[in-house]
């Protein structure tokens, strides 16, 4: 008895029975190729539920940073100060970071979200924030505020 799928000579006829008639094969192949895209379709980047007015009234300051990892894991450890000039507390402060080399060439980009709440009209320090892996030659770091969320009470 020949198994449903076989690699023996002359087994191609039996394998056709498994995959169906000739017109069905392209559709079956397309379905197999598209299945991961359909399954993972909602797994894009982080969703930013930003309020533009809230974000405009927040100031993000990079106070200090250094690379940790001893040339193995190269991750910036940062100290940020967030100032909230809104009338409501904020959370999920998201920013975009870029690292540059010794000659000013762009090396690494990414986004990072800090957990924690900042009270209205107050400033809060976020220390020891490990923002992500960067290139070994990273010499300069810039940050740009992307969004904040309102803390619902």
Q: Which descriptors apply to this entry?
A:
three-stranded antiparallel sheet; alpha+beta; single chain; flat; 19% helix; 153 residues
Please write out the topology:
Elements: H1 12-19, H2 24-39, H3 52-56, E1 58-68, E2 75-84, E3 90-100, E4 106-118, E5 123-130, E6 140-150
Shape verdict: flat
Would you count the extended β strands for me?
6
Mean pLDDT: 80
Percent helix, as a range, is 10-25%
Strand order of the largest sheet: 1-2-5
Distance between the termini: 69 Å
Low-confidence stretches: 39-48
Helix-strand pattern: HHHEEEEEE
Strand content: 35-45%
The gyration radius over C-alpha positions equals: 26 Å
Structural classification:
alpha+beta
Taking the sheet with the most strands, its summary is: 3 strands, antiparallel
Enumerate how many helices there are, as a single number.
Answer: 3
Describe, in plain words, how this protein is organized in 3D.
This protein has 153 residues and is an alpha+beta fold. Strand 3 and strand 4 form a beta hairpin. The chain contains 3 helices and 6 strands. Mean pLDDT is 80; it is low at 39-48.
Gist?
This protein is of the alpha+beta class. It has helices at residues 12-19, 24-39, 52-56; strands at 58-68, 75-84, 90-100, 106-118, 123-130, 140-150.
């Amino acid at each position: 008895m020949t198994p449903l799928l076989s690699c023996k000579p002359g087994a191609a006829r039996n394998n056709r029975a498994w995959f169906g008639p000739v017109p069905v094969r392209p559709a079956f192949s397309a379905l197999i190729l598209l299945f991961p895209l359909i399954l993972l379709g909602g797994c894009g980047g982080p969703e930013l539920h930003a309020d533009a007015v809230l974000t405009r009234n927040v100031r993000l300051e990079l106070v200090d940073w250094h690379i940790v990892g001893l040339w193995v894991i190269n991750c910036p450890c940062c100290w940020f100060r967030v100032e909230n000039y809104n009338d409501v507390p904020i959370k999920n402060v998201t920013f975009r970071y870029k690292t540059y080399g010794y000659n000013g060439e762009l090396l690494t980009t990414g986004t990072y979200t800090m957990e924690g709440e900042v009270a209205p009209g107050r400033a809060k320090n976020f220390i020891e924030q490990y923002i992500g892996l960067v290139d070994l030659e990273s010499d300069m770091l810039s940050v740009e505020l992307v969004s904040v969320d309102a803390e619902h009470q």
